[in-house]
Each structure stands twice: as C-alpha cells, then as structure tokens.
Write a structure and sequence with these properties.
alpha/beta, 4-stranded mixed sheet, 13 helices, globular
C-alpha cells in the first residue's frame, strides 16, 4: 500500500512511537526545558545557547564523507553553502557512523523525486517537542489530543473508491484521512467520520484545508473542529479566514522541512516568528526591489546526529525591509522580531474530475530507480501526463513501477500516461515546475477561485 510502509510513517501511527521515540521519557522533558529556556532568554543568551549546540553538531558533521570533502570544522565559517542537488545526488555522504539507529524519511520538494533522509531518534523527540509547543499555544493538549490528519498520505490506492477513506492509529487517537478521495461525492462521509471522531486538532496541508471547507460550504454541512494545525505550504489569508469561519477553529501555521533545518510558526496571519534553538539560521540576501530585500533561508541542523546538514539552502525566502540592518535581522533569526511569513512554500498540485486536490507527487517515484526528475502535465481534468528524465540503467521494470505508482496515486477517473522525455518544460524565467496546467485547467481553476493567490502555469 503506497505511502505507509516506511519506518517513520509506521512510528507516527503507533502509540508506542509516541511513548518511546517522539515523546521519549528520557529526552522529551529535556527538549521542552530547552524550548522554555529560549522563551525566557535575551538575544545574547539565545545566540550563545545556539552556538554551543552548533559546535557540537558541526563536529559530528565533520566526520561524514561530505564533511571531510568540504574541509568542515567546528567553525561554521569553514563550511560552504550546501545546494540541494548535492544532497539529492549523494545522500549517503551525509550519514554518520550512528546512522544505523535512525528513522527513515524523504523529501520530494519541487522535483518530484524522493531524497532519502535519516533522522536520529533524539531529533525526532526534539521535533515533536517544538510541534507540541505550537499545539499548546493553540489551546490544545498535545499528549491527549485527538488528531485528524489530512495531508499527503495515501491510506489506500486511489483506484479503490469504496469507503472507508481513512484509518485509525495511535490507539484510536489519530484519524489518517485520504486526500485523493475527498470530493463532492464523499464529503458527507468525511464530515460524518470527523463528527464521530471529534478531533481536537485537524492537521492539514492548506490546499486540503481549503478544499474541505469549500466542500462543506457547498454541501451545506456544519462541522466544528476546535483547532487547525497547518504546515508544509503557504497558508494564505483567505484560507486562514475560511477555517475560522467554516470550522470555528483557532488556527496555527508552522514552517519546517523534512531536512529539519529551520522551524517557525504563526498564530495570526502575518505574524510569523522563527523558533530559536531548533536550528542555526542564516538569511542570505539575494536581491532588492524597492523597500524590501529578498533573503534565502539557509539552515543547519542542531539535533540530527544521524544526518547533519550544514548551511543547507532551502529554496525558501523571506522579504524584509531594505532599511533593516544586521541587528534587526539577527532579531528575526532568533525569534524576537516577527515577519509577515515565508515565500515559496506553495505546493503544486493536480485536481481530479471529482475536485480532489492531489498533492502527493513524491509518491510517484517511490521505489523507482534512475529517475533524474519528473514533471506532471494536466491539460484537462481527466488527463495527466507524467514526463520523466531518466539516466542509465533505467529499465522496463523501473518504467512499470512508475506506471503502477501513478495508477495507485491518481484516481481511475483520470487517464494517466508515462513518457520518457529528453527535456522538461521550463517557464520564461528558467524554472522547471513540477506541475504544469494546460489552458483548460487554468480556466477551470480560475473559475473555481480555489487558488488563494497561488499561481498556475
């Protein structure tokens, strides 16, 4: 079954994973104390605490094959910026001697290719502690909260259109819901399942949150969920207000990556703060347009001893007033000065004839070797073309696996073809988007007005 066979996913669904790993009784209290210490600390104290942990992490990173080739030391100034293709092409070079005792994960970003990642058990606990801090500020209790999850998981094949479209986990405390099956014909079943489950928190991708609220409104269904926790995409103001109005929810939006190199959150739209002590953060100035300067977010892991990443270029950006100097920017870095939010976190997606938002493109290349990059072209609601750049020794078996993954993740109402190509389509400014919408799709999306400011191509 796609999307549920990794160790990390299984850990998330087992209550044992909560107790022994993500909320480990030996590590978790220390992680929460670390967070609390930063919350009361001055700028200088936050800086000193972070730099102390940074030196430890850099010493570990210097033992990896990448660290040795980069000539890295316990001084971050000795390390080069780390580009995503370097990690994607040689992920094993970033593993440490302790990586055998770690959880597996992956990220696909905007390439559609899964980059295999490892996370130390301690870093899983720290991650959970930071997320729990956001949940508590929402007004919920993370240890006992009933959580419904509507993100990128595939709980069953998209070809299977029979209910249920969800599974329970965590001793009944979590409800994992399929995104690809959510549509006008299933919204009553989803609403009933959520009413019966009575979640304290709905954990979502913003695009799925928007679609759920839209379907509830169109179907004249009433559903109340106290808290919404959003992540992994930009949560725009329209969707933020929609969740408050349709679900009656308090909303929080947090920011991070599978690579675990930054963390931040907002409890109100336009009031975002980076969270100190999670990672070492740099804001790399790129260009200035009038009163604002665009900065790229560059992060270094502080806690992942299995696969430490140093000065990783996230490809995400913030815009800061051009007149801000080093002092103001440092206050942003250490969470003492809020900013409007993060740019560049919109996930490109397909839309099925039923209206379902399909944003699990990373699953298409799962278990497929020798794919350089893929691109999805949707000319209309009923058609998807999967275009792939490959490298030797791409085989018929690889192609068959890719076709099977596509069929498992894309509903049967959509015709799917897989084509090996020599080049992928680029935009006028040279970007290679993961998803391209044809004219018919652009007109459809414009008519639905479900983009909340997201651009189609």
């Amino acid at each position: 079954m796609p999307g549920i066979d990794s160790l990390s996913t299984l850990i998330k669904r087992l209550s044992l994973g909560d107790r022994l790993i993500r909320r480990n009784p030996l590590r978790y209290p220390a992680a929460r104390a670390w967070i609390a210490q930063h919350a009361q600390a001055t700028l200088q104290q936050r800086r000193e605490l972070t730099l102390h942990q940074l030196r430890r992490s850099l010493r570990v990173a210097a033992t990896t094959a990448y660290g040795r080739s980069a000539g890295g030391s316990s001084d971050i100034a000795d390390w080069p910026l780390l580009e995503k293709p370097v990690l994607r092409n040689s992920p094993r070079a970033f593993r440490t001697a302790s990586s055998w005792l770690a959880g597996e994960a992956s990220t696909s970003g905007t390439t559609g290719l899964q980059i295999p990642l490892l996370r130390s058990l301690g870093s899983m606990t720290v991650e959970q502690a930071y997320i729990d801090g956001v949940i508590e500020q929402l007004g919920s209790k993370p240890r006992t909260a009933r959580v419904a999850i509507l993100r990128g998981e595939n709980v069953k094949s998209a070809e299977d259109r029979t209910p249920p479209y969800w599974i329970h986990g965590g001793n009944g405390q979590r409800l994992h819901m399929s995104c690809s099956h959510l549509g006008p014909d299933t919204i009553h079943a989803y609403a009933m399942a959520l009413k019966e489950f009575k979640p304290d928190v709905l954990w979502v991708y913003p695009s799925n949150l928007e679609w759920l609220c839209h379907l509830l409104q169109k179907s004249d269904l009433t559903l109340r969920i106290p808290h919404v926790l959003s992540s992994s995409e930009v949560l725009g103001p329209v969707t933020w207000r929609l969740a408050e109005q349709v679900l009656g929810a308090n909303v929080a939006d947090y920011y991070g990556q599978a690579e675990r190199v930054t963390f931040g959150y907002a409890l109100r739209h336009g009031d975002f703060r980076f969270t100190p002590g999670y990672a070492h953060l740099e804001l790399l100035p790129l260009d200035t347009a009038g009163a604002v300067t665009r900065h790229e977010i560059v992060g270094t892991t502080l806690w992942n001893n299995a696969m430490p990443l140093v000065r990783y270029r996230t490809g995400d950006f913030v815009e800061l007033p051009s007149h801000w100097g080093p002092a103001e920017i440092e206050e942003v870095i250490y969470g003492l000065r809020p900013i409007s939010g993060i740019l560049g976190r919109t996930i490109e997606y397909l839309v099925s004839p039923e209206g379902a938002i399909l944003n699990g493109a990373g699953n298409l290349t799962k278990g497929v070797n020798n794919v350089v990059r893929l691109q999805l072209f949707q000319p209309d609601l009923a058609t998807v073309q999967v275009r792939v750049l490959v490298q030797p020794p791409f085989s018929p078996q690889d192609l068959a696996k890719l076709q099977r993954n596509a069929r498992d993740n894309i509903p049967p109402s959509m015709a799917v073809s897989v084509e090996v190509v020599e080049e992928l389509e680029r935009t006028a400014i040279g970007k290679t988007p993961l998803v391209i919408h044809g004219d018919a799709m652009r007109q459809y999306l414009a008519g639905k007005q479900l983009t909340d400011g997201r651009e189609t191509r």
